[in-house]
Amino acid sequence: MNSQIIQPPLVAWANGAFSHAPVIRKTTRIQDLTAVFADGQAWRSCDPQLPVYTVEMLETPAGEGELWTGVTHLNPGKVGNEFFMTRGHFHARREQGEVYFGLRGQGLLLLQDEHGKARLETVCAGSVHIIPGFTAHRLINTGSEILSALAVWPTIAGHDYAALQGGFALRVQEENQQICVCEVQNG
User: Fold this and answer.
1) Phi, psi (5° rounding) for residue 72?
2) Main-chain dihedrals φ then ψ at residue 106, nearest 5 degrees
3) Kind of pairing between the strands at 118-123 and 135-141
């Protein structure tokens, strides 16, 4: 028998860096997050080129049964009094779930179903988050260092940002040096 031992990709658990594999890298900047933050004036006053988060993904063939593996690195910071966050999305194929693993930093995972019911989970090194299908999700960095989370999701899931044009039902802000969760008033 002629077996070959292959070195799979590696991830450094302390910082989420990939090695031994090709990586796709995408940085999202303040200018890319139109209408994400509540305080539009504070958003407009930010440097449009300021990086908010970077996603690094292992190159993977797309198709039924394949999985993306990626790490989101969300910088610390605020727009006005609202913490930096990812854009957040539903999956285009709503039934597809996702798993997040906290690697470093402190933050929250905002989850919201299609009826607008929202909840928050604490993200920290070692936390595991099962995101069910039909659930929008967004990372929020409430700490002073980079928040990194490893994610695994089906390549067929896609992203649906348009379904959240009205935003999430909760906002996470800092008030009097405390984390404050505010319900968004619609209408």
Assistant:
1) -95, 130
2) -135, 135
3) unpaired
pTM (predicted TM-score) = 0.94
Give the helix ranges, DSSP H, for 40-103: 40-45
Question: Order of strands, edge to edge, in the sheet holding 135-141?
Answer: 118-123, 107-113, 135-141
Q: How far apart are CA 100 and CA 78, in angstroms?
A: 23
- Rama region for 155: left / alpha / beta (φ>0; ψ in -120 to 50; rest): alpha
Percent of the chain with pLDDT over 70: 98
What per-residue confidence (pLDDT) applies to 165?
Answer: 82
Per DSSP, the residues of 166-185 read T--SEEEEEETTEEEEEE--
What is the rounded CA–CA span in Å between residue 125 and residue 33? Answer: 26
How confident is the model over 24-65, as pLDDT tens digits? 999 999 999 999 999 999 999 999 999 999 999 999 988 999
Domains of the chain with CATH codes: 10-183 (2.60.120.10)
Q: For the chain, what is the radius of gyration of the CA atoms? A: 17
Task: Report which DSSP code applies to 86.
Answer: -
Share of the chain above pLDDT 90, in %: 90
Residues 6+ apart with CB under 8 A from 134: 90, 94, 95, 113, 114
